[in-house]
Amino acid sequence: MSLNLEKVTFTYPGTSVGVFDIDLAIADGELLAVIGSSGSGKTTLLKLIAGFETAHHGSIRLDGTAITHLPVRERQLGVVFQSYALFPHMTAWQNVAYPLKIRKIASQKRRHLAVEALERVGLKGFEERQPQTLSGGQQQRVALARALVFQPKALLLDEPLSALDASLRADMRDEIRRLQREFSISTVHITHDQEEALSMADRVAVMEAGRLVQIATPLELYDQPATRSVANFVGEANLWEGETASSTSVRLPFGLLATAPHDYAPGRRVTVLVRPENITVGPGPDGINVFKGGIVRDRFLGAVRRYDLAVGEAVILGQTGIRGDIDAISIRPEHIRLLPT
Amino acid sequence: MAVVTGIYLLYLFIPIILLFVGSFGENWTNTLLPTGFTGAWYLELWEDGSFRRAFSVSLEVVLATCVFGTLLAVPLAYALYRSASRGVLLAARIVFLLPIAAPPLVLAFGFILLFSTDALPWLGSIWLLVAGHIVLTLPYLLQTLVGDMRHLRLDELELAAESLGATFRERFMDVIVPLLRHSLGSGLIMVAALSIGEFQLSNLIAGFLYRPYPVVLLQAFYGSTGFACAATVILLGLALLAAAGGALAARSASRYRKSES
User: Fold this and answer.
1) What is the 3-state secondary structure (H, E, C) of A140-205?
2) Residue pair B144/B76 in contact by the 8 Å Cβ criterion
3) Best interface-test mutation with B: which of A47, A49, A52, A73 has the largest number of B CBs within 10 A?
4) I want to staple A215 with a disulfide (CB 3.0 to 4.6 A). Which of A184, A205, A339, B138 is the partner?
5) Cβ burial, residue A122 (10 Å; 0-12/13-18/19+)
């Protein structure tokens, strides 16, 4: 079912903190990740959709029906909490069966459905276990099964992977995505981990100071960030302040950079974005945008190496698989993106 | 450290051990330990109607204090936990500190003044005694419950239950009450122990027909030492019985909720 937010505004009592003028449309079966730094308003947004807080202005619609002022329990939304919020006095199957019990489903049937849901999340044989005897990943799966078993209209995930260690987090990303597709359920996934958002979501919404800054597919967001702050937040980036010299060049503190044709007028202040993986080691075949310098910082990350090359006063962040010495780099014009300052 | 602990434990248990020894001694006057061995003091206690009656009154008062205290404390603790109002939290703090700030004697005088009037002529009734015990023990039970609620992060569990479709009643009965079983158990043990040994308030407000055990026990000290020791040992047993009862009640309540889910 589709989920629509129109001009949703909310501020916490006695503060100016909250979310402002949020317009968002989540299609049926879509997974939308909402990212942003701490205090950007992403969790508040989830609270408003879930009904834990009520919007002061605007409307929230689920499949066309207004739910802005509907009590939490009547919204029919599956919520997975950051801490999982499993009931510690119930076993895994009792946790999953709880929403079915609320819906007055007969005892036998709800046990059957709960066990089946646990099987679907890969927890066959764990039915009688208490939550505290399960690992973080297993608790996460129980929480997912519980949120999905009653066939909610949409799924809300509040930083569900943040409590897991790195290796498990990668597995759980795939698992959540698999289940989300299997259930074909509209999902809002709140996270501060941009890698998680880019790898899982159909679209990503970036929030900043309570406002939506950009909504785009992961590829668009990475390649064409709308602002400097989005570029900075999503992935590693070289961001330099410069001034356009012509329709195909920009002047930077460390030299003139040839760009692809752009629409900025000459003399306009711009931010130049170049991703580290788009920095080529060596002068390149056509000898364009070549800069010489010395490495001032070198980080070996396994498959790749990330280095800082000092060019005059400026530092260029690069990423490569080459392990030898680096004394010059080049940047292809099509890899340069200009952003408004 | 071990020596200090040993000395402290000795200091703690010697009076209790001496009570046991004394309760079976035939004669104990101006000696370190009693002389002779007898079970006569316990028999005498058993045959004394006032002690038997006091024993059952004490059990009734403890039971009623635990039951009504629970019925009051659980919703009250929940309200305090959920309340964000500064005024409510201040009131709660005052209630928590009340038994320390105002001794039972003060409460007893208040009860005498209020309940000996023609409008409220309840002084001497067992229900007033129960009410007094509830007032004295409620802050301890509340403190235990509110502390546990904070520890359990009950607000998030409640939100989870609400998002799954649970009404307030369902959340309260399915999540809050079963989760509080441990703190309720330990709180009730404390309530039972306090109630069974309570003397100051009970001595002033209990009627002749409903004198609890500690009030009647005072008489024993005017008689022989062996009889006083035996009567005190019985009080100790009564306290242990009440504490065990409180713990069992909380445990069975939680099992009942668990089997229902």
Assistant:
1) HHHHHHHHHCCCCCEEEEECCCCCCCHHHHHHHHHHHHHHHHHHCCEEEEEECCHHHHHHHCCEEE
2) no
3) A73
4) A205
5) middle
Task: Quote the DSSP letter at residue B257.
Answer: H
Q: Is residue B40 a contact partner of residue B105, using CB atoms and an 8 Å limit?
A: no
When CB atoms are compared, the residue of A52, A86, A90 closest to B261 is A90
Residue A245, φ and ψ in degrees, nearest 5: -100, -35
CA-only gyration radius of chain A, Å: 24
Chain-chain contact of A77 with B163 (C-beta, under 8 angstroms):
yes
Nearest chain B residue to A147, by CA: B164
The total of other beta-carbon atoms located within 10 Å of residue A237's CB is 20
- Using CB atoms within 10 Å of the CB of residue B222, give its burial: 0 to 12 exposed, 13 to 18 middle, 19+ buried: exposed
- Each residue's pLDDT expressed in tens, for chain B with a length of 261 residues: 889 999 999 898 898 899 999 999 988 888 888 888 899 999 999 999 999 999 999 999 999 999 999 999 998 888 888 876 777 778 777 877 776 677 888 889 988 999 988 888 888 899 999 999 999 999 889 989 988 888 888 989 999 999 999 999 999 999 998 999 888 888 998 898 899 999 999 999 998 889 999 999 888 888 888 999 999 999 888 888 877 776 776 666 555 445 444
From the number of C-beta atoms within 10 Å of its C-beta (0-12, 13-18, 19+), residue A193 rates as middle
Complex ipTM: 0.83
In whole angstroms, what is the distance from residue A273 CA to residue A267 CA? 18
Residue B150 to residues A130, A332, B191, B258, Cα–Cα distance (Å): 21, 58, 21, 22
Least Cα separation, residue B175 to chain A (angstroms): 7
Query: How far apart are the C-alpha atoms of A200 and A193, rounded to whole Å?
Result: 11
CA geometry: angle at A92 spanning A90 and A98, to 5°?
A: 60
Distance CA B9, CA A101 (A): 51
Residue whose tokens read 């209630």: B95
C-beta contacts of A264-268 below 8 A and 24+ residues apart: A264/A338, A267/A243, A268/A243, A268/A244
Cβ of B261 within 8 Å of Cβ of A98? The answer is yes
Return the bridge partners of A61, or none.
Answer: A4, A66
Residues 6 or more apart whose Cβ sits within 8 Å of residue B118: none
| 3-state SS, residue A320 | strand
